[in-house]
Amino acid sequence: MYTATNNQQNYNQMPSSLLKFYFKWAFPGLYRYIWLFLAATLLSWSGNVIWPFVERMIVAMFENATIGPTVMYQVLPSIAIVVGLNMGMTITGIMRNHLESIVMPGVVRSIQQKLTDYIHSQSLSFWHNRMPGSVGTDITYCVTGARTLVTDVWLVFVRLLMIIINSALLFTVNKYIAFVFIFMFVLRAGFMWGFKKPIKKSAEKRAAKSSELSGKTIDGFSNNMVVKLFSSVKSEHNYLEPVRQENYDASRFASYIQRLAWVVPGVFWDLMLGVTLVLCAILYGRGMMSLADIVYSTSVYFNVTGAIGNLMNSIPGIIDNMASANKGYKTLVVPIDVVDKDNAYNLSVRHGKIEFRNVSFKYKNKRKYILRDFSLTIKPGERVGLVGVSGAGKTTLVNLLMRFYDVTKGEILIDGVDIRDVTQKSLRENISFIPQEAQMFNRTIRDNIAYGNEGATDAQIHRAAIRASAHNFIMATEKKYDSYVGDRGIKLSGGQKQRIAIARAFLKRSPILILDEATSALDSETEVAIQKSFEQLSQNRTTIAIAHRLSTLRNMDRIVVMDQGRIVESGSHNALLKKRGMYARLWKMQSGGFLQEK
Length: 598
Hints:
CATH topology of the largest domain: ABC transporter transmembrane region fold
Strand content: 5-15%
Number of helices: 19
């Protein structure tokens, strides 16, 4: 019946924080290159400590050199040292860039791969209040956060180290100048710390509004046909304008907070340059500093102030990026509602018997039950049609069978096995599902038919298309099976997309077949051809068909009539007509072959 293997990853064990996620999934396998990158960054920035000494050495070299023919011999060793140091810093800078080109693509790939796999493993409930565009934006935020952590955050520590070393070395030259530097650094660091919370809060709000705007914009693009059909360009403009304005306001406010965090200290920094130069002049006049010492102190000043300026200016961006990344991660990484048990088995359907035993179901945070104490047994190979007005629970029933949701009470069994005891992957591999609205990828027709069956040959794909009455229209396209169907299959008609979906089910050849209004988008002539294909497809397969067009269910072995989550009638088409119950009334209500709604 099943084998005791379970290869599914437990995505509910995703790290609770963004940093833990990075260290568990983004960085492993790249640590050697990351450490080399960090070391190269440190070496390349060591010039901020070395260069003031070089300038001091150059001034002292010429200041102490004897003017005459031998001056070249006196300064040449120092010149060689200067050139060598510059070349060393250039080489380490090149190494840093090279290592970054190895590290960052790998980190980005790991993050995108893991989060995308996690999102695809989410339950359907995850998408109830989310838009694909905003999900994509949140993944981008997490990628940007990793890049910020590896490069910008490390640079903060490197710059801080350079500042500390330069300030310490400055004490060897003149303690008064050193104290001025320390005072400036402490003052600016304290000012920036006071802006930490406002920067983070404004960044999170900007990220949230950006994700919302992205999601709503892409939602409009995805439904461009509806926009054109109703000439709703202005309506879309008006719909997006409020969130667009909110995003604009949030972005401006975040930028304002960031500017305020560095503009005020920046002005103070410039004033302190004058104070430093005045102090140098006083000390030089008293013979407490040499010209080389002044050059060294001035060079250190510009290096340190530049480093502090870059440090403080980068902090708002770092806070912004990390806050956005944290917000994105918290939005994406939420518990998965439907998960496999730790000891879940791989299901292997031999007969195809389906049992719903006292099944009750309601959606999370909802009071009303869609199904209540529902019981139904479908024999192996039996073809059962589900009938009922919208809201009767038909689609919910098949969603539970495919375990898109877990039952609230009761159990669902296939060949006597509770579907909660088997892996979701193996369960769905045994079910072919043809929905009311066929979902298409922006890929070739061949790719769409073979989706889920990557090893399918061209002959098998063509055979499936023929059985689905799709081959003729495919061959009429420009590139035939290599033709792209466009975004969500926009290049195909509704009936063509449905036939591609039917061909996909033919190719899958699963023992259980579910049809959810599978012929609703087809014209009558094509429906007749498809019905013959369904006759072949359902041979020796347990079949559940949902249809408002009751004529499509006439040849079912049994028709189950549902109302408000319960079975009210069950039997063959002719037997139900003779009962003159709900099915007979629905049959009389048919208009053009469709079931009229209440």
